[in-house]
Amino acid sequence: MEETNVDVVLALFWEMWYLLVFSDKKKSAGYAWGLMGLTVKLAQSIGLHRNTGKVKVIPEEVEKRRFLFWELLSLDARLSLSLGRPPSLTLNHVDSERPTYLPSEGVDLANSSHHYLEWSHTFYIHCMTPVLEAISQPSSHLGYQSILDLDRRIRDFPIPEYLKHCNGYESRAVMMQKGAVSMILETGRVHFFFYQNIN
Length: 199
Fold this sequence. Notes:
single chain; about 200 residues; DNA binding; about 0% strand
């Protein structure tokens, strides 16, 4: 906490992914959620949530900071929906611009990760944020039509051709990205409906 920088936040980000994907502990998702709270505070302490024009940053770091922050936003939203807890971050307190989604250097266009990253961050803005806003207010009760509208927004959200259907010829990274797209879509829908059914 005394010498926080982008690399510290990045290390904590990967630790959360480790807990969620590889840990066999029963409470690993809860640990990841607690770690997210600390990570977000450290990210905010170095201005990761702010437009770099307002923070002194060397130009080479700008894209790294943006990618990391937008990945934190997305992961925080998925954790919140999965655990039924409030998110640590909201767009209301953020003016960090989105990263520049360019194809990975020296990689075939079909195997570049920029398709997935752009889709994931756009999905967060247009689908995850409205769902989190709808369920984060304890006193609110959504009408049936509002629930259907939010569900339709998720179901109808476009997926780029590069991220549809595994054909067995992609790299492992691309296959993981395609699997993640399905997981993100279902996380939004399933947990939203589960929340509504218990409230």
